[in-house]
Amino acid sequence: MHCCSRCQRPAVTELHSPRRRADPESLIASARAGDARALGRLISLVENRSPELRPVMKAIAPYTGTARVIGITGAPGVGKSTVTSALAAAYRAAGMRIGVLAVDPTSPFSGGALLGDRVRMQDHATDDGVFIRSMASRGHLGGLSLATPQALRVLDAAGFGLIIIETVGVGQAELEIASLADSTLVVVAPGMGDSVQAAKAGILEIADIFVVNKSDRPAAHEAVRDLRMMVAMGNWGEGSWRPPIVSTVAVAGTGMDDLTEKIGAHWSWLASSAELASRRRARAREEVTAIAVAALRERVGGLPGDSRLDELAGRVAAGQLDPYSAADELVSG
Amino acid sequence: MHCCSRCQRPAVTELHSPRRRADPESLIASARAGDARALGRLISLVENRSPELRPVMKAIAPYTGTARVIGITGAPGVGKSTVTSALAAAYRAAGMRIGVLAVDPTSPFSGGALLGDRVRMQDHATDDGVFIRSMASRGHLGGLSLATPQALRVLDAAGFGLIIIETVGVGQAELEIASLADSTLVVVAPGMGDSVQAAKAGILEIADIFVVNKSDRPAAHEAVRDLRMMVAMGNWGEGSWRPPIVSTVAVAGTGMDDLTEKIGAHWSWLASSAELASRRRARAREEVTAIAVAALRERVGGLPGDSRLDELAGRVAAGQLDPYSAADELVSG
Fold this sequence. Notes:
The structure is a homodimer of 333-residue chains. The first copy, chain A, has 14 helices and seven strands. The first copy, chain A, is α/β, with parallel strands linked by helices. The first copy, chain A, folds into three domains: 1-50, no CATH class; 64-278, P-loop containing nucleotide triphosphate hydrolases (Rossmann fold), CATH 3.40.50; 287-332, no CATH class. Chain A has a seven-stranded parallel beta sheet, with helices on both faces. In chain A, helix 6 links the parallel strand 2 (98-104) and strand 3 (130-136).
């Protein structure tokens, strides 16, 4: 279809039609050459679970595996986004290209997620060496575990040397971030009563580095002391990494040198031990499993009928059938 | 094996051995007769994903479908457990048997979860008309979506007329609770800045009743006003249920009559519309799907080798293979 009978340009509707098939090869080439729009479209394929993702993933596989991945998590209000922004600025100053994925597990809205955080990230809005994307995962099939590793993979292939994944530290989300990242930063703020809370929730198992942000507050010393005690009580094997505690005032850039130094030290430790390869294999394992399960789940839901599932569910709700027998019928059918 | 050569009582180790096979029929009969230990063991089967769950679920199916299910969710610190406890007391005074499932999506520790909440629930500790169980779901395969509906099913079959599921309102957990409950209560507290937050996270979609707890605080009027405005802005169809707003001071029992009245009104609305049957069918659909997916997932993970998954993951991590092709191989293998 052309614009009009007089010219040969493609019709505008054709240009912008969401149904227009993306050409994976050229999108990837553009994204690798630094085209943010092409990159954005690739990430949209991930978010929409597009069938075109499959050839894209196939094509980019050889370009992956070079990015370093930093996960940042913590309770609401501790300043995760400010830490993320300050960290991005620090690495940007060192000439790195940086991708930021802000994942909001509490929001069902894609794209518009973490609006406030996006605003805080505006320092980087005009810098095409920094790519920022908000992703929402609430209510999505497979949640974080499906979309985030693939978005990561796209950024990796597009040549971003450092990728920061930021998520609010609630429930399953922080575990998933930790499983994706090479280095996981757990951010706390003084006087929020959350350091003990954090310990309770088993945060020690995921933190590679603790960041006490807003450390100009009076209670900062106590937060550091609590964390130090917690780390001291940990059961650390020989040669294992003990999470250091870094004090920052991210909004003023204070402590960022110390933080990047500790991140570098952790990276060196990872690379010199078997840990880096092991973490990345684990990440791939999770990713492959998530894709396999999603495929199987679709098979379950998309059988000869959702009507079949409905019928089985009706019988279960009425007490005529137990859910295991129903599941058997569903899977075998 | 007997206790000793002189008596015929079973050996103590045999009595308490966790390896002793439970006899589903007699456990169910005991639980239905009011034996809390038998009930506890049935719930443990659920938590441990025991293979014995299957015959249990089959046997109890005919006894299910009578319990009313109330979900209670909200941010940390708003007083969910106190509301739960006060509500249990109110219904208990009316002669009902009540089951309470306190589900902690932030904790990986089963059984010991929500210790603080358990303490607050101690008013009911000596009352065998109230059964309280804490469940942890963090990091568990399938999380809430797998264990909670089945624990619910067990309590239902054991004759509890009312089941309260309490969970902290974070991410996926509150959506899952809402999908399980007949009536969902969203608890907020004044001055925690969470009513707007709640609105942002799309809480309107899950709340059947809003509870403004700690309503003796100065900012209570504002919280009620904010919620009222939010409800007024909702897009309500003809005959649909508009969530009422109830003010309580649960720790003093204030407002509980109003709350039980609103819960009753919601129940009447559910029962008189097609909504009750539809919600329960949806619940069964979720449950059956979760079991089916878990079964499929086990099939994926437990293939001729985890070694196979490891090998595929290694190739993905090295960029030699894309994750979709790896998932294909895994599923087809």
